[in-house]
Amino acid sequence: MQRYTLLITLVLAGLLGACKRDIADVQATPTADLNFTASATTLTLATAGPTDTVLRYRWNPLRFGLSDGSGTAVLPVTYTLELAPAGNNFLNVTTVDAGVDTNRRGFTAGELNTLFTSTLGLAVGGPNAYEVRLRATYASNQSLVRSAVQQLSVTTYASRFYVYGNTLGALSATSPRLAEVAATPGQYDGYVYLPAASNTIRFSNGTTYGGGATAGSLAAPGADISLAGPRMYRLRVNLTTNTYVATATDWGIIGAATTNSG
Prior knowledge:
By secondary structure, this protein is mainly β. The protein has two domains: about 25-155, Immunoglobulin-like (Sandwich); about 160-250, Immunoglobulin-like, CATH 2.60.40. The protein is about 15% helix and about 40% strand. The protein contains two helices and 21 strands. The chain has helices at about 1-25, 110-120, and strands at about 30, 35-40, 40-45, 55-60, 65, 70-75, 75-85, 95-100, 105-110, 130-140, 145, 150-155, 160-165, 175-180, 185-195, 200-205, 210, 220, 225-230, 230-240, 245-250. Strands 13, 14, 15, 16, 17, 18, 19, 20 and 21 form a nine-stranded antiparallel sheet that branches. β7 (about 75-85) and β8 form a beta hairpin. It is elongated.
């Protein structure tokens, strides 16, 4: 009985080994080019709203043919954008997730501005010349395919809004500025003291903004915004809606440090 059991075991082992060899010999190979394209190659981000989509990359999803001629395979594919300074041969690469089993990736003006000024650490302005390509990774062994290269030139804007005017002085690097509201591209908030009885202000982030046709609206370059003083103002700007709010505030000290003349 042991003799027959051993024989059956050896036969099964041989069959399983043959199956493993057949599976290992069948390979999935991409059958078409990615055809990676861009909707734009030159961008000045300040000319668009921060939530406006200004750049779209598209590509053909990878398809795979089986080496044994039995048909096609469906494999999960992870897509990643690779960015590098132009002429760098992608020696210093920054990657951006482009999704799984998709065929497009869009960017808003605010998203690109954050990518270039914060993630890449570039100075505000430009143009900044970069090259972009798509990396497609598939299978458990992380096989990959890369696309042809697209050129990209981006001019960024300041993430803070400068305030200047007749009593604050001409626009400069030391002008009062409003900070960008966290996680809200295109919205700015801050306090500015206006020292005279009559003050006019404008804003700038590389583009000059002033008052629009209606109260509280912004336009580029717009008109001087008049504010009475001397007062401290909280200034809030929303470039998505092209509006501003100027709220006069009173500052004082309360608590144990105050004096009581009465």
